[in-house]
Amino acid sequence: NYRTDAQTEKLAAVTISSKVYPLPFRTFQDFLKKCEEEKMSYLTLVQELIIGIEPLDKSLEELTLSLPINAYEVWASGVTYLRSRDARNYESQGNEPTVSYYDKVYVAERPELFLKSTDRRTIGPNDPLYLRSDSNWIIPEPELGLVIDGNGTIVGYTIGNDMSSRDIEGENPLYLPQAKMWKHSCSVGPAILLAETVDNPYDFEIICRIFREGEKVFEDSANTSQLKRSYEELVEYLMRDNIVFPGTVLLTGTCIVPPNDFTLNDGDLVEIEIPRIGKLINPVKAQLPLE
Ligand code: DO4
Ligand code: MG
Predict the structure, then answer these.
(1) Which ligand is nearest to the CA of 179?
(2) CATH 3.30.70.100 correct for 73-286
(3) CB–CB of 219/209 below 8 Å?
(4) CA of 227 to the centre of ligand 2 (A)
């Protein structure tokens, strides 16, 4: 999605040659509906639609991108990477580890899935992430997002930030919804890479950078090859006995955790990059103006 003015957003397709073609849909869900009606694959429909039309005279870099899909629900997976299991153990136990629920869920057949966000709470590129006023330990969680249709088919890949409060979850895992979901605690974007164009989805590099007063204060990277579970397995559990809206986003868990003494501050900038999908960049703001 790109903005033409403050009120108007348009859906567009970007080709390998970086040309941007406007698409005749208001939302990504409308695009999914059309594919279903025409019984066409997602890529085929895009290819047919852009035949004979002129690309925009602006490059992707010149456009102001916005939330690529306003999903009714964003779900998330937890403890799908060793790095996340170890971080959860640290925040709940400090340096006195015992066998925890996080250890158990990492190896259990059933994955941890939770509702992360809803359409009114999710933000797109460049919109502000808000800190929780009752938490002193908040970090970004850079994650690969699966965009699925109503049948659970993986339509495409995007980037999600499952921003989380480590002190609230660390105090008691039953506080998980409060550690995960509040106003502007989830960002998604900047684009959706169609699954049909990806040879190996278990080879996405994820890079996270955090800037403070213009200086980079954190950078780390990881690869989806380290994921403990398959995407299909995560989607299958989400679909079980559930209502899943076309265009639901399922985040696949974090593989990058900043050092334990790090917390996001008002004014920071979080950048999450997955090559071929783009960079999801969001400023961080205190929810209420500081006194
Ligand atoms: O158990 C808490 C959730 C962990 C999580 O969000 C993640 O692993 O990404
Ligand atoms: Mg997460």
Answers:
(1) 1
(2) no
(3) yes
(4) 13
